[in-house]
Design brief:
By secondary structure, this protein is of the alpha+beta class. It has helices spanning about 1-15, 35-40, 65-70, 70-80, 220-225, 235-245, 250; strands at about 20, 45, 55, 90-95, 120-125, 130-135, 135-145, 155-160, 160-175, 180-190, 195-200, 215, 260, 265-270, 275.
Length: about 290
């Protein structure tokens, strides 16, 4: 009987927690009211200054695949953007030498605070990038979308305390309002004093901070399910992080419902949102 009461109390607490989800994203298109969205050359990520690039204007016939062939993934990651958000009228950062992006990451290969931890997640908001560390050594990294202005993701050191691979927003619906906004492969790392929960989860990446405070990662399979774009999903960073950080090899079979975890990975969030420049500043071509 005591176990049943404990379960009911925990369930009530989980239901009561408000989930901050991504902002509803309208159909991608040029917007005269959002020049930073139109020109990703204006979003300053410090590490991009070390890569020679030029602005490329997206025409109606252009896609990342048509412009860069098999290397489109490198360019998507460099711009922190998914294929759905590459639309006519916008400008992206285009590398002058594609090979410069093959080992590109803003994250350091070693992170001293992570040395004594088996799993350690570092998120740099200024770079909009996430790194996964094992005992201080970088295992993999990829782009992330943190909270937009006014809804900034909280900084500090946290610990993962829950997982839910089939999570959905309790506040927001998809653009057609048919279902609650999907937050697949969700990893909860913080509950604020206002009872708002913050998760790392699948979402769309528009090339800049865009959420209500959560941290979003590439998941084209989720986008295909919800928006039917892209036709052939490839990127699924959210699943990779979920499996590595809170997967079944570490915490046993996944029930598919919200599960509380003990001694979860550390999540460190540093910095501030990137600066938006009045005009693009790009690295000069190497001699």
């Amino acid at each position: 009987m005591a176990k049943v009461i404990k379960y009911l109390i925990l369930s009530a607490i989980l239901v009561a927690i408000i989930t901050r989800a991504p902002l509803s994203t309208s159909h991608p298109a040029a917007s005269p009211n959002d020049h930073a969205k139109e020109d990703l050359g204006r979003v300053l990520y410090p590490s991009t200054r070390s890569v020679a690039w030029k602005p490329v204007f997206i025409r109606p016939q252009d896609t990342l695949e048509s412009l860069y062939g098999k290397d489109w993934i490198l360019v998507a990651r460099f711009n922190r953007i998914d294929r759905r958000h590459v639309y006519p009228g916008m400008t992206i950062k285009s590398p002058i030498h594609i090979d410069d992006l093959k080992d590109y990451t803003p994250m350091s290969l070693e992170h001293k605070p992570a040395k004594r931890y088996h799993r350690y997640i570092l998120i740099n908001m200024e770079e909009q990038w996430l790194g996964a560390y094992e005992y201080g050594k970088l295992q993999f990294s990829f782009p992330a979308a943190t909270g937009k202005k006014g809804y900034e993701t909280p900084t500090g050191v946290f610990r993962v305390d829950a997982r839910h691979k089939n999570h959905t927003s309790s506040l927001y619906k998809t653009e057609d309002e048919s279902v609650q906004y999907p937050m697949d492969y969700a990893i909860r790392f913080h509950i604020g004093e206002d009872n708002v929960a913050y998760w790392i989860h699948a979402r769309d990446l528009p090339g800049k901070p865009a959420s209500h405070g959560c941290v979003g990662l590439f998941d084209e399979a989720m986008q295909k399910r919800i928006t039917n774009v892209p036709e052939n999903p490839v990127l699924q960073d959210s699943k990779k992080l979920y499996d590595w950080a809170v997967g079944e090899s570490l915490y046993g079979p996944d029930s598919g419902v919200v599960e509380l975890l003990e001694n979860g990975p550390i999540v460190e969030i540093v910095g501030h949102n990137p600066e938006y420049l009045s005009k693009p500043t790009r690295a000069q071509e190497n001699p």
